[in-house]
Write a structure and sequence with these properties.
homodimer; Tetracycline Repressor, domain 2; mainly alpha; Arc Repressor Mutant, subunit A; transcription (chains A, B); 9 helices; HTH_TetR (chains A, B); 204 residues
């Protein structure tokens, strides 16, 4: 650390690592994913970031504030991808669905830690309940897109559309279990593979 | 509660609900799934079962003992289903794989709480690490079955077999997110739907 021109060290930063809000959020999300949100205390966060227990409150108003930002990041991304797919005109319902699946995979890979956190939320607090409510709206909208693709005759009609939707997005969501940010597949390649398996099946 | 013939209440049970070990295990698994294993204390377990904090230790030697029993239940079931599918003779590699998928879905539905707990394990203790190790062996064996089905020409060869295996069992495992023990689909019907979607695809 360098002293400022007056020779006095800049006191707001004295003894504290110079993390910005974005870095604090990233490190917090990783910690929540490693040991669970409920299992992470403000003390754990302070330790992770190298703050004292009292200094952490200057950087983080509360644990739930960080959780809310993380869940909003994931939900905003998914909602935006979905809205873009639904807004397409001049294409079939099946193409809109394919684009929604592709878009969901891209958001999942690009915001992997935040989406991982979202998919583990169980509704144990107000912030979590609101996130689950938003997630339900997204799931409902995706289920409607599946229904439309079945109705236009593009998708098989021997299974309930609600079941198709659950299995399809269950496969998409399962990516969080093994995709790594520095992994060998990029988002586009993963999106291609998921849509190929889901729409065309494994049989040669 | 009735007194015994001597007129003295049977002291080992006095004031305690008459749960057997099986019931204790079921209630513990449900509690672990609701609030997380790490987030559940022996005190929480005692409260859930209506025991005093000191009485709980007469019924449950430790939290990790219950976790181990639960994870073994799930892993034994999956390993058994897999071994049965692999041992089949006179069928193709693809048929053995289909039977392994069906068997996995059946075990998942029949042992839903135990498998749900297994899929949430992150390796935070010796018991969890050992369970993850067993799970890896099962995943490797399933991946080998996928490879054999690709090699015999039954499954598409334009995707890495490891990827096919992950997406396939990602779809299977995602069932724990929404299947309910008293739900509208039985294990056989779910196994049929999952294998149909996975092998034949969604496209009509």
């Amino acid at each position: 650390m360098t002293a400022d021109i007056s020779g006095v060290p800049p006191s707001p930063r004295r003894g504290r690592p110079g993390y910005d809000q974005e870095t604090v959020l990233r490190r917090a999300i990783d910690l929540f994913n490693r040991q669970g949100y409920d299992g992470t205390s403000m003390g754990d966060l302070a330790k992770e970031l190298g703050f004292t227990k009292s200094a952490i409150y200057h950087h983080v108003p509360s644990k739930s504030h960080l959780l809310e930002q993380a869940l909003d990041e994931a939900l905003d991304g998914l909602a935006h991808a979905l809205a873009a797919a639904r807004a397409e005109s001049g294409v079939t319902a099946n193409e809109r669905l394919r684009h929604a699946v592709r878009g969901s995979v891209m958001v999942l890979v690009d915001h992997l830690p935040a989406v991982t956190l979202l998919l583990r939320v169980r509704g144990n607090s107000e912030v979590e309940s609101q996130a689950l409510e938003r997630r339900r709206h997204i799931d409902d909208a995706l289920a409607e897109m599946v229904e439309a693709a079945v109705a236009e005759g593009a998708l098989r009609n021997d299974l309930p559309p609600a079941m198709i939707s659950r299995l399809l997005f269950g496969m998409v969501n399962s990516l969080v279990e093994w995709v790594r940010p520095d992994g060998r597949y990029d988002a586009e390649a993963l999106a291609d593979m998921v849509t190929t398996v889901a729409f065309d099946g494994l049989t040669r």
